[in-house]
Amino acid sequence: MRIAIYGAGGIGAIYGAALAEAGNEVVFIARGPHLAAMRADGLRITGHGGEVHLPTVEASDRPGDHAPVDLVLFCVKLYDTESAAEAMRPIVGPETVVVTLQNGVDGRERIGAVIGADNVLAGAAHLGGFIEAPGVVRRTTPGIRIVFGEVGGARSPGTEAVARTLAAAGITTEISDDIDRDIWAKFVVLACNAGMTCVSRLHISEVYRDPELRALARANMAEIVAVAAAKGVALPGDIVETMTAASEAFPPEMTTSTHNDLKRGRRMELPWLAGLVARLGAELGVATPVNRAISAALTPYVAGEG
After folding, report:
1. Could you say which of 77, 186, 231, 263 is catalytic?
2. Are 221 and 290 in contact (CB under 8 A)?
3. Which one of 3.30.450.20, 1.10.1040.10, 3.30.1330.80, 1.20.1290.10 gives the CATH number of domain 180-301?
4. For the purposes of burial, counting CB atoms within 10 Å of the CB of 45, is it exposed (0-12), middle (13-18) or buried (19 or more)?
5. Average pLDDT over all residues of the chain
6. d(CA 194, CA 106)
7. For residue 10, which of 21, 129, 202, 239 is within the disulfide window of CB 3.0 to 4.6 Å?
8. Does 306 have pLDDT greater than 80?
């Protein structure tokens, strides 16, 4: 399968490396020093799972030069969604499947508004990683998993083909029968931990070892669950307990991509995480004091240091 990893950073590069090792034709869409390093010395994945070095990779910042593709894994930062979707047009043909693996819950709608909704599937990346140095990505979780699906739980031939390709690359793959539920279930822990790690400047497991921060994180999750319910998305009744336990068990060195961006003075995805929860809460009449406070406290740092 011909595959574009659109946004080959800490998440996309790991999936792309697995797919390339399995024999697929993979083009890594990236930019800046990371792109230059991949062109010069390939891509190196370190951390959990051992070291992988692809000495030669197809890497570019001009997606139109690499059309057509069968699959796009859309891993772009949330603030670049619309501009990246516009630039992606040349590689998206009638049969191309685009799976968004972004951090938020509205990527499918935002991409679909630009290129049309028929090609776009929502997905959830269950994987941790970050760019350790240009051309080098460190994987911070042992598992590598993707959940994705069509609205309504249908399974078209294109969706089934994508699932087979991902699974053949050693990626644990699930076609969801309720992708909105699964996207919001991940968002509960993702948005909460992004905010909590940033305001505390701690790694995820450290947040949950502190009784007061742990209680605040659980209140944060409960707000997100309430917003999801107001939008008609029913999440499991024990999801706060489940996600608390999962967060407590994360590797000691694991943090969130938002926390990494804050530490490095980069632009943050906050407006589509805690900020989105606060906005939706206001629209739907759901109180979100924790997320409102996190959004307010971090807004001065959203644009990074330039």
Report:
1. 186
2. no
3. 1.10.1040.10
4. buried
5. 96
6. 17
7. 129
8. no
